[in-house]
Amino acid sequence: MLDFPDELSELEPEAKSESTTAERLVELARRSQELARIVAQNPYAPTHLLKELGYSHDVLTRQAVVANPNAPTDILLNVGGEFPQQLLDNPVFGLLWLENPDLVAAMPQRTLSRLLESLRGQQELLEIVANHSSRSIRYHAYRVLRKPNCAIACLERLAGSEDGEVRSAIADNPQTPLSILERLADDPDDNVRRSISRNSNTPVSWLIKFANDRSDDVRANTARNPRTPASVLEQLSRDRVQSVRYVVARHPQTPLSVLETLAAEPDVNMRCAVTQNPNLPVGVLEKLAQCSETSIKRAIASHPKAPIVLVRGLLYEGAKWFRGDVARDSQSVEILERLARDWEPWVRQGVAENRHTPTILLEKLSKDETMEVRLKIAQHPNTPATVLACLASDRYLKVRTEVAKNVNTEIEVLKGLARDRIAPVRQAAQIRLQSFL
Question: In this structure, is residue 356 part of a structural domain?
Fold first, then answer.
């Protein structure tokens, strides 16, 4: 720290000056954090000092180093992933390509990934990455091309790529214009047509065509597309490939007559797929509940339209493993309330894991006698801060550790856990506290 408040203003011009010697800049940078930040911006700072500052604990110092044109290449590439905009703005970044035409291969994966998150990075690098000889590097292009925020100009330029995975990624992107998708609709690569068949913007006329595609995957993804009309689903319900028909059974737009036909098939997997349809009528659920297969009964018991009376009967018949699975999947508050009172800890633990469990039940289960149940409550993303505060004094270190990790835990509780007598609890709390700095 500086000795006097006015000392920074006195030394700042010297820290910025191009005429200050390298030895003096080193001395100034080590004198205070404030001066280190200023020295890090000086384009005449020696490279060995900038390398040292590039590993500083201070974020602003590291950021200034990445923006400095005199920073060593290894620092720019390693620390640049933390500050991609500063790296792209650094005037020396363009010159690095002259020194090493395969610069993307020399970059850490994190840096390359962060650079491609920005539109400017995509404009400058995406085509290079997509055409690279290494698939591990091209993977970054595949990932970016699927993202909604990918630059349309990049999608346009790369739609004619010889790499089928590039074209498939573009066809997957929900923001890809129809003009580009139309060019890819008759692509000889099955994976490209598969991507278009599952794209939520694919026109119905194309889906009708894809329902007759030679590829099983294309037809299956056509059956999965939310825009696929009932007439096409009816056609695909008679597909020669059973896996395609399973997808039809799950589609919310599949006509009732088709569901009834599929539900009557002897294939257990088909009937199980039918029970996963969110719009399945109660009558079909009741009929399927008469079967002996546990997998079908479990799906029915977790179905949002299943009558309470029907579910109660299935729970009464089922073993603890059956009730536990229902407890993890059910969206019915009444069923979850019933299972929260179950005598088996495994079942109550299932309720504690369920993302649909209401807050009042989470609070009740936080006082459960079984540690595993309380542990799941401590991990639950919807557990209120007041409940977590109570669990912070739990006698089991696993519970306290999960409380420290939970994003809903308040800072005052974390401060208390940071003083816990057990090291793993303290460490978890300290990590969370750092996120508040």
Answer: no
Pick left, alpha or beta for residue 199 (phi over 0 → left; psi -120 to 50 → alpha; otherwise beta). beta
* Amino acid at position 427, single letter: Q
For residue 311, what pLDDT is reported? 85
319 confidence band (pLDDT: 50, 70, 90) = confident
pLDDT at 321: 83
The answer to the question of residue 282 being in a domain is no
pLDDT in tens, 384-429: 999 999 999 999 999 999 999 999 999 999 999 999 999 999 999 9
Name the nearest CA neighbour of 285 among 301, 270, 269: 301
The answer to whether residue 389 is domain-embedded is no
Record the tokens describing residue 270, joined without a space.
């088909």
- Mean pLDDT of the 116-145 span: 94
Residue with tokens 């088996």: 344
Reference 371, options 389, 397, 351; nearest CA is 397
Q: What is the pLDDT of residues 168-177, one digit of tens each?
A: 999 999 999 9
The answer as to whether 333 is a domain residue is: no
Predicted TM-score (pTM) of the model is 0.75
Give ∠ CA 238-244-249 in degrees, rounded to 5.
75
For the chain, the domain total comes to 1
Full residue range of the structural domain in which residue 19 is found: 1-115
First to last CA, the chain: 20
